[in-house]
Amino acid sequence: MFARLAPLLTLIAAVLLVLGLIDLAVFRSGVYARLIEPESTAGTVLGSVYAARHLRDPARKNILVFGNSQIGEGFSARTANEASGRPDLHFINASVPGTSPRVWNYLLREVDPDGDRFAAVALMVPYDTFGIRVDPANYPLDTSYTLPLLRLADLEDFPASFHVADQRERARRAILFPLQAMREDFLAFLANPPHRLHKTRKYWPGWLDAVQQWHGHDQSIPAMDIDPTSGQPRSWDGCSAELMPHLRDYLDALHNANYGSPELQTQDKAYLREWIGRIARRYRAHGVPVIVFVVPRGPWHKQLAPVPAASGAIAELRDAGDILALPCDAFVELEQPQYFFDQLHMNHEGQQKFSKLFAAQVAPLVH
Q1: Quick check: helix, strand or coil at residue 356?
Q2: Burial, 53: exposed, middle or buried (Cβ in 10 Å; 0-12, 13-18, 19+)?
Q3: Which has more confidence, 27 or 244?
């Protein structure tokens, strides 16, 4: 019986050995991180790593700014540098669309393993829970984002940070079997290695230049009179058909004070407490300030919503001295249609004003 199975078992063992060697040589070594499709989910995270490493100026005090696409669109490091009044300061935009503090924690571990390469770290956080619909701890794309940053040592900690079993299992499998998790990208690479190699060589320098030069969108949301009874514009004149449904949903959420259920609010606070807390503890040992701030929230927040108030985890961490929180109303003046091109993202004018105000607020906190 065993003699008949021996060839099959040998083949299985050989396949497992080959897969293990590929895993060790390609994925665990970090080699494949340089070959990932730059415009993939994992690739955008590596773009942040690339920016943090290549834009860091050893002659100045570097301030690493994290956020999602609202910072990607709405913050100009170059403008902040010019407006700070401090030639010794150097802002770096390390934002990644769709990410939040759990991903930033692993990003910071990758680019600043000892917690001493930057003079400050600034994190975009919500002071309120407007528009929250899901438990942020269960965001499924976080595994895809962090995949190139995860290690075998994270096998217990990272999966345990998800609250649902299927997401925990997916995270475990991604750490144990990165070849499986990256199979589509890996197969695309194998289908045409010269194309991928050419793209990665050309992409990153150009992308780095684009991050520094990003002008922002010129278009703005048209000024519209909001009916206080319905919470919707009295007329949609001047608004594109593409933008209209997004603004309608945004205004409906504002009108109905959609700040999430009490359960979701509790989950959101726990998530921020865990991940902002982790980042703060890493930097506290080196006296590096972790600064949190609320980006301008939307085009009609100033008119229709209360000023955000730091509460829950943010207030706890601030009061404990673990983080520095910019004033709640620091950027409320920009929450107007002329500074936005859609329901979430600032346009060029908003970007420029925000970057200048941000630099003025942050500069006095960096010593």
Answers
A1: helix
A2: middle
A3: 244
* Higher per-residue confidence, 103 vs 29: 103
Neighbours of 201 (CB within 10 A): 10
Q: Cα(24)–Cα(79) distance, rounded to whole angstroms?
A: 43
Say if residues 115 and 278 touch (Cβ distance below 8 Å): no
How far is the C-alpha of 87 from the C-alpha of 146, rounded, in Å? 34
**E strands in the chain:** 61-66, 89-93, 120-124, 290-293, 324-325
State the Cα–Cα distance between residues 284 and 115, nearest whole angstrom. Answer: 9
- Backbone angles phi and psi of 233, in degrees to 5: -60, 145
Tens of pLDDT, residues 279-288: 999 999 899 9
Taking residues 232-257, report their average pLDDT. Answer: 93
pLDDT at 339: 98
Half-sphere exposure of 327 (CA within 13 A, CB side): 9
Supply φ then ψ for residue 55, to 5 degrees.
-95, -10
What is the Cα–Cα distance from 257 to 240, expressed in whole angstroms?
A: 25
Calpha distance 228→222 (Å, rounded): 18
Question: Structure tokens of 18?
Answer: 């080959």
Question: 92 - beta bridge partners?
Answer: 64
Query: Average pLDDT over the chain, rounded to whole?
Result: 90
How far apart, in whole angstroms, are the C-alpha atoms of residue 293 and residue 297? 11
- Written as six digits, the tokens of 331 are 């950027």
How far, in Å, CA of 184 to CA of 80, rounded? 39
Amino acid at 1: M
Alpha-carbon distance of 233 to 255, in angstroms, equals: 12
